[in-house]
Amino acid sequence: MTTQADKLPYLSSEFLESLTISTSDVVDEIERQIIGQRRGEVWCAPKAVVLPGDDRYIMATLGVATEPRLLATKSLVVNPRNPARGLATLNSLVTLLDGETGLPLAVVDGNWVTAKRTAGLSAVAAKRLARSDSACVAFIGCGVQARGHLEVLADLFPLQEIRAFGRGTGNRDALCSMAEARGLTALPSDTAKAAVESADIVVTTVTLVPEPVAFLDARWLKAGVFATMTDLALPWFPETMVSFDRIVIDDLAQEAQMSKPMVRPELVAGDLTGLVGGGVQGRQSENQRTAFAFRGMAVGDLAIAGLAFVRAKAIGALDE
Predict the structure, then answer these.
(1) Which of 139, 151, 238, 302 has the least C-beta neighbours within 10 A?
(2) Does 85 lie in the same domain as 155?
């Protein structure tokens, strides 16, 4: 990380990991900034998306907080051709400005922020929508997002087992090894149905480019399940979503501006802001099938990048 007075500090993923930000830190900060939105202390724009038509997915978020006094913008490109170049499929960057003056403060590794905030948003929802005794998690998609979700869910629930299904064996085996390192049983699954049908929690993190063809049937899920869908619910057969008793999305206002809804509006009980604020009820019985489908919220990027910035300042890492 560079800290010279004449250069903008860059918070790399290695440095960010050294801050040892915990799951509770992530969840608490996301919830705090969501409540800040309700109080008129945090302002976020709906995410902007550009689809050039060549399988790239280009996205940006914008959020402003009162405390810490920050403006955070994230720019992201997902390109399925990147692995052939020896690059990650997703690459992004977060810039932080002083929310009052607009002066630049730092640049933050966006891939780290994206992984932390995505799993963090799921965790905020899972606290309210999953059964507290959830022991088995099924992962559909086994990459970076799956590993981030494994970390937070293992911290929040008494997990004993994971089931993993993905397109390639490399990511699947890495996820299973990560689970075993935490003392969990890890079972690779040959089919998506085998992975999800006995799970207490289902995590789908299927890549959005190229756009996935639906292959998951909500009727496979047992009573009491909670599913979190980071992939706009695209891998799920739309006609089977009625099998869920309660579906919450991330942001009703943002969703209203999108050309295609993730879930039929009449099936949506509310959004994450309502869930955190208490206006939307969470799980209402042990047997309810619940789901959280989300595009990603600017407040999540703002919360995680801001948390990292404040933590870095607290240890003197950003002092000139």
Answers:
(1) 238
(2) no
